[in-house]
Amino acid sequence: MLQDKRILLIVGGGIAAFKALELIRRLRERGAHVRCVLTQAGAQFVTALSLQSLSEDKVYTDMFSLTDESEMGHIQLSRQADLLVVVPATANLMARMASGMADDLASTVLLATDKKVLIVPAMNVRMWTHAATQANLATLKARGVEVVGPVEGAMACNEFGLGRMVEPNDIVAAIEAALSPQARPLAGRRAIVTSGPTREAIDPVRYISNQSSGKQGHAIAAALARLGAETILVSGPVSQPDPVGVRMVKINTAQEMLAATLAALPADIAVCAAAVADWRVAQRPNAKIKKALYGPPPRFELVANPDILATISKGDVARPKLIVGFAAETEAMLDNAQAKRKRKGCDWIVANDVSPAMGTFGSDSNTVHLLSDAGIESWPTMTKVAVAEQLAQRIAQHFQQAAE
Ligand SMILES: Cc1cc2nc3c(=O)[nH]c(=O)nc-3n(C[C@H](O)[C@H](O)[C@H](O)COP(=O)(O)O)c2cc1C
């Protein structure tokens, strides 16, 4: 499966770096070509000579090497591989990846690549569970970076816990999965995802909007892209990073979101996770509304915004084969969600309770129910990234079953 695959192996500065040597042997046995980038800290743990001997290729360590740049520029290095694998991914390297730094060859190559990236973290348990590392991990996952491990076990620092790097055989399996076509069951499918809130102007400086963070919608777009779908993410104003491998269309209003969604058709899959404002102000002045000192506050007439989910489900458009809506409810959740599914004409509804007690908006976890013709499935509380993974897998299964 790995015959003639090109792996760019980035070796970071952790105790587990010695396992990279074993990994190279296993990859070479399977016919893969391995080229290594060694960080300065990595060179404290393994030598470039060992990596070079086992990979039978040049080892790259320096960003400002004239010889390396003339033979193989750093951009080429990042693109001439089928997969980039970071072993071990140190806390430091994860932080630099998450913040988009490019201050050495490894981080620059990781920023410049257009290929899939798999990281294999290894660090002390406290470093791993630190909020900073966990936030970096969530950012990287949301951008489509694949992560394998760490696992629980004894560590070189004499502590025990989560942070130990997975063994070379497991890394090989993860590399095979990342490179195998079965890992991309949605290849050849096109998906549109809407995410975030919309913003409806009252005047040039004020607006009506809602609490949607875009975390769930963005994670779904990233998960569909990871499974191989050509994914277009139509997003309202959010502070989420743009997921890797996804085409972004950024909009403000519901009318713009509808236009962008229709422009992205035809598609196989549409997931409408955006919290579209139901109403907009009928007459918007071109200048800021002045606060009258003693006068009454202004009154606004609201008009209904277009219903994007209903339009693509029932409208005179090229209907996507599978349309998934979201129902954010605060009461009678399942009844309301089931009624919404029928009313809008979509195939599935993901219902979630957004009452303040659940803290769903902006949080990293979500408790959802999947409603379809087959009935109601209640999923356990999971991170929004895990909900996205599971939903993307279910979508892939749906298309596999339809093809059988
Ligand atoms: C003996 C020793 C062991 C280390 N092991 C790890 C480790 O397992 N994981 C980690 O994230 N950092 C570890 N560090 C810290 C990193 O080497 C340090 O953060 C370095 O800047 C990482 O650089 P790099 O990410 O460019 O490779 C270790 C440091 C020392 C001195």
Explain what the structure shows.
With 404 residues, this protein is α/β, with parallel strands linked by helices. The protein folds into two domains: 6-182, Flavin prenyltransferase-like (Rossmann fold, 3-Layer(aba) Sandwich), CATH 3.40.50.1950; 184-403, Rossmann fold. The protein has 14 helices and 22 strands. The chain has helices at 18-29, 48-55, 66-71, 74-79, 91-98, 105-112, 125-129, 131-142, 168-179, 215-226, 254-264, 308-314, 333-344, 384-403; strands at 6-11, 33-38, 59-60, 83-89, 116-121, 146-147, 151-154, 160-164, 190-195, 200-201, 207-208, 230-235, 246-250, 269-272, 279-281, 302-304, 322-329, 348-353, 365-366, 368-372, 375-378, 382-383. The strands form six sheets. Strands 13-12-9-14-17-18-20-21 form an eight-stranded mixed β-sheet, with helices on both faces. The protein has a six-stranded parallel β-sheet with strand order 3-2-1-4-5-6, sandwiched between helices. Strands 7-8 form a two-stranded antiparallel sheet. Helix 1 runs parallel beside helix 2, helix 1 packs across helix 9 and helix 10 (215-226) crosses helix 14. The longest helix has 20 residues, at 384-403. It is elongated and about 75 Å long. It starts with 5 loop residues before the first strand and ends with a helix. Flavin mononucleotide (FMN) binds at residues 12-16, 39, 41-42, 90-93, 122-123, 127.
Task: Give the arrangement of secondary structure elements.
Layout: E1 6-11, H1 18-29, E2 33-38, H2 48-55, E3 59-60, H3 66-71, H4 74-79, E4 83-89, H5 91-98, H6 105-112, E5 116-121, H7 125-129, H8 131-142, E6 146-147, E7 151-154, E8 160-164, H9 168-179, E9 190-195, E10 200-201, E11 207-208, H10 215-226, E12 230-235, E13 246-250, H11 254-264, E14 269-272, E15 279-281, E16 302-304, H12 308-314, E17 322-329, H13 333-344, E18 348-353, E19 365-366, E20 368-372, E21 375-378, E22 382-383, H14 384-403
Parallel strand pairs: 1-2, 1-4, 2-3, 4-5, 5-6, 9-12, 9-14, 12-13, 14-17, 17-18
Antiparallel strand pairs: 7-8, 10-11, 15-16, 18-20, 19-22, 20-21
Bound molecules: flavin mononucleotide.
